[in-house]
Design brief:
The protein is mainly alpha-helical and 432 residues long. Helix content is 79%, strand content 0%. The longest helix has 32 residues.
Length: 432
C-alpha cells in the first residue's frame, strides 16, 4: 500500500474526509473544532495566542520576581495585590470608550500596552518601577477585557452562546499548553529561562494585536440621546447580579488554592494528585464547555444554570471535606470524583454568567457593562484566597460545607434577582 493510500485509510478510519482543504475545513467546522466565519476564527486564534503567553507568565511570575529580580516574597505579594486592585478600576471607563470608539481599536491598543508593560519588566530592577509596570499592565488587562466583550458579541453573531463557550475552551486549552511550557522553564530554573517566558508573554501580546488588526472594524452602536455616560453604575439590577456572580466566582480558586493545601495538610492522598486536579479540570472544560452551554441562551435559562452550579459546588465541596479521615487510595477516588463534580458546576456557572453579563447589558453600552462585571470577578480573585484559607483550611469540614451552602443560596437567589433586574430597568437600559 502506498503512503497516499495509507493516509486515505487513516482518514477514513477517523471519519476525516479524504478530499482537499475545502472538504477538511467543512469537516472541522461540522465537528465544532473551528468556528465557521473568518472573524470568529481570527478572534479565537488571538485568544489562544494571548492565553499561551499569559499562562506561562502566571505559572512562573512569582519565581521570576524572586529568583531573577531578587524581590522578597512579601514585596512580590504586595506588588501583585496592588496592581490587581488598581487594574479593576479601568474596566468601566475604558469599556465606555470602546462603546463609543469601537471595540476592536480599543482592544488592540490595550494589547499593545500590555506587551510594552510586560517587556519593561526585563529592564527595570527597583520595586517601584516594577510596581508601575505591573499596574500599567493590569490596567490594560482589565480595560482590554471590557473592550473585548462587545468585540466578542459583534463577532459571535447569531450563535453567540456557542461561540462564547468555544472561546473558553480555547482559553483553557491554551492554559494547559502554557503550563507545560512553563514547567520546562521552571525545571531549568535559570535566569535565561525565566526571561524567555516573560519576553514570550510580551511577544504574545504583540502577536495577538497583529491578529486582531486583521478583523474588520465594528461600528459603535448609537446611544439613546439621554443615555447616561455611566449607565451601568445606575443600573441597580445589573450591579446586584454582578455582586452575586462575584460571590459565586470565588469557586475558581477552590481547585487552584484550597484543594492543594487540603490535600497536603488534611488528607493521606499523594501530592501528585494536585497536578492531576488541574489536568482533570482543564480537560473537562475543554471537552464539555460548549455542550454545557447549549440551551443557555436567555436570562431564564442562565438563572437555572446558576442554580444548578451552586448545588454542584456544594456536592463537590462536601465530598472534599469527607476525605480528611479516609485512607490514601479512598481519598484519591473521592477527590477525583469531587473535582469532576466541581468542574461541572464551573461549566454551568460559566454558561449562566456569560449569558447574564451579555443579555442584561444594553447594546450601546456593552463595554462599560462588561467592565463592571470584570470588577466583580477581580474582587473575587482578591478575596478568595483569604476566604478559602479561613473557612476551608483553618476551619476544616464545617468551612467547606458552609461555603458550599453560600454557593447554593447564591444560585437560588440569582434567578429572582435577574427577574427583578429586568422589571426595574429603564427603557434606555433595555438589553440588546
Amino acid at each position: 500500500m502506498t503512503s497516499a493510500q495509507n493516509e486515505t485509510a487513516i482518514q477514513r478510519s477517523n471519519n476525516v474526509p479524504a478530499g482537499g482543504p475545502q472538504e477538511r475545513h467543512s469537516w472541522l467546522v461540522g465537528r465544532g473544532l473551528i468556528p465557521e466565519s473568518p472573524p470568529q476564527r481570527i478572534l479565537a486564534l488571538a485568544t489562544f495566542v494571548n492565553m499561551i503567553g499569559s499562562g506561562v507568565f502566571m505559572v512562573s511570575a512569582a519565581l521570576f520576581f524572586t529568583r531573577v529580580l531578587g524581590l522578597p516574597v512579601a514585596q512580590v505579594g504586595l506588588g501583585m495585590g496592588i496592581a490587581a486592585g488598581v487594574g479593576m478600576f479601568a474596566g468601566v471607563p475604558v469599556g465606555h470608550l470602546a462603546d463609543r470608539r469601537g471595540p476592536r481599536e480599543v482592544y488592540l491598543l490595550m494589547l499593545v500596552i500590555q506587551g510594552i508593560a510586560m517587556a519593561a519588566l526585563v529592564f527595570v530592577h527597583s520595586f517601584w518601577l516594577i510596581l508601575v509596570a505591573l499596574c500599567v499592565g493590569e490596567l490594560a488587562r482589565s480595560a482590554g477585557g471590557a473592550a473585548r466583550g462587545p468585540l466578542v458579541r459583534g463577532v459571535g453573531g447569531a450563535d453567540l452562546t456557542r461561540y462564547r463557550a468555544y472561546l473558553r475552551s480555547v482559553a483553557n486549552l491554551a492554559g494547559s499548553c502554557a503550563a507545560v511550557a512553563a514547567g520546562f522553564a521552571v525545571q531549568l530554573d535559570t535566569r535565561p529561562a525565566y526571561l524567555i517566558l516573560v519576553l514570550g508573554n510580551a511577544l504574545s501580546f504583540a502577536a495577538s494585536a497583529a491578529i486582531i488588526a486583521t478583523l474588520p472594524s465594528l461600528p459603535p452602536v448609537p446611544a439613546p440621546p439621554k443615555a447616561s455616560r455611566w449607565a451601568v453604575l445606575k443600573d441597580r439590577g445589573y450591579v446586584a447580579v454582578t455582586a452575586l456572580d462575584a460571590v459565586m466566582s470565588v469557586h475558581h480558586q477552590v481547585l487552584l488554592f484550597a484543594l492543594p493545601l487540603w490535600i497536603v495538610g488534611h488528607t493521606s492522598a499523594p501530592r501528585w494528585l494536585i497536578g492531576m486536579a488541574a489536568l482533570i479540570n482543564t480537560a473537562v472544560v475543554v471537552l464539555l464547555q460548549v455542550r454545557a452551554s447549549r440551551g443557555v441562551d436567555d436570562t431564564v435559562t442562565a438563572g437555572r444554570a446558576m442554580r444548578r452550579s451552586g448545588l454542584a459546588f456544594l456536592v463537590g465541596m462536601a465530598a472534599i471535606a469527607a476525605t480528611a479521615g479516609l485512607p490514601g487510595w479512598a481519598a484519591v477516588i473521592v477527590i477525583v470524583v469531587s473535582i469532576f463534580i466541581h468542574t461541572v458546576g464551573e461549566l454551568w456557572h460559566t454558561a449562566g454568567s456569560l449569558e447574564l453579563r451579555f443579555s442584561l447589558a444594553p447594546a450601546h453600552a456593552q463595554g462599560q457593562y462588561m467592565g463592571l462585571f470584570g470588577v466583580g470577578t477581580g474582587l473575587a480573585n482578591v478575596v478568595a484566597p483569604s476566604v478559602l484559607a479561613l473557612l476551608c483550611i483553618s476551619w476544616g469540614a464545617p468551612g467547606w460545607l458552609l461555603l458550599g451552602g453560600v454557593f447554593v443560596v447564591v444560585g437560588l437567589v440569582t434567578p429572582i434577582v435577574v427577574r427583578w433586574a429586568e422589571r426595574t430597568r429603564s427603557p434606555m437600559e433595555q438589553p440588546a
